[in-house]
Amino acid sequence: MSSILVLNGPNLNLLGSREPAIYGTATLADIRAICEEAGARAGLAIDFRQSNHEGVLIDALHEAPGRHAGVVLNAGAYTHSSIALRDAVAAIGLPVVEVHLSNIHAREPFRRHSHVGPVALGMICGFGPHGYALAIEALGAHLTG
């Protein structure tokens, strides 16, 4: 069975209590369960991780080739600020689907730009936790396509 890395960035460990009007009430554990269910439907094992540290996220991306067939990435605020994370996505040679709980294009101007987007296979945003399932489904279809 192929596996994918589901990688979550800063502050996503606070989901459920962090700005629920924007991010909803689902916790990161709830999202993990959604990802595992979506992975099972797609025939993909899920390696689910979260870190608040940019270097840890980059290291996880660097370790993904040879271990995983692709990546679902919610880089959180690093989406809008980290060229290093963008470069890691570009360097690993794996398909990456960027996901965001909120619609970043309907938010503050600084959140509307993604450094990751131009080097990702695609982006899913604005569908809350269900966006992760959509990203896994899309990545699975791409991998078997």
Write the layout of secondary structure elements.
Layout: E1 2-8, H1 20-23, H2 28-42, E2 44-50, H3 54-63, E3 70-74, H4 83-92, E4 96-100, E5 122-125, H5 130-144
Parallel strand pairs: 1-2, 1-3, 3-4, 4-5
Adjacency order of strands in the biggest sheet: 2-1-3-4-5
Shape: globular
**Element-by-element helix/strand order:** EHHEHEHEEH
Give the distance, in angstroms, between the N- and C-terminal Cα atoms.
16 Å
Described by strand count, sense and barrel closure, the largest sheet is:
5 strands, parallel
List keywords for this structure.
single chain, 145 residues, alpha/beta, 37% helix
Task: Describe this protein's structure.
The protein has 145 residues and is of the alpha/beta class. The protein contains 5 helices and 5 strands. It has helices at 20-23, 28-42, 54-63, 83-92, 130-144; strands at 2-8, 44-50, 70-74, 96-100, 122-125. A 5-stranded parallel beta sheet has the order 2-1-3-4-5, sandwiched between helices. α2 (28-42) runs parallel beside α5 and α3 (54-63) runs parallel beside α4 (83-92). The mean pLDDT is 96.
In short:
The protein is 37% helix and 19% strand.
